[in-house]
Amino acid sequence: MRWLGIGAVQAWRHTLGLLTPPGTCKYHPSCSQYAIDAFRELGLVRGGIVAGWRLLRCNPWSHGGVDRVADRTLFRGRDERSRA
């Protein structure tokens, strides 16, 4: 099922995403790449929630910077928390 989310992001990139000027993203990786990584790592539902949370954080008041799916705090398992 995760391929549905990845396909939706790819469709966005090749249609409406082309309207976004290059180099305007505050975060690295871009929100679309973050969403693809989230779908691959967490599946359709959890990946969609994590990607949506990232989109909500992308606003004029955020500082941006490096933000990877592996560094998230949402949906971290008990074994992942103990390693951090």
What labels would you give this structure?
mainly alpha; 5% strand; two-stranded parallel ribbon
Topology summary:
Elements: H1 2-14, E1 27-28, H2 31-42, H3 44-57, E2 65-66, H4 78-83
Parallel strand pairs: 1-2
Helix pairs in contact: 1-2, 1-3, 2-3
Provide structural commentary.
With 84 residues, the protein is mainly alpha-helical. It has a domain at 1-6 and 29-74. Helices cover 54% and strands 5% of the residues. It is built from four helices and two strands; from the N terminus they run H-E-H-H-E-H. It has helices at residues 2-14, 31-42, 44-57, 78-83, and strands at residues 27-28, 65-66. It has a two-stranded parallel ribbon. Helix 1 (2-14) packs antiparallel against helix 2, helix 1 (2-14) packs parallel to helix 3 (44-57) and helix 2 packs antiparallel against helix 3. The radius of gyration is 13 Å and the shape is flat. The mean pLDDT is 88.
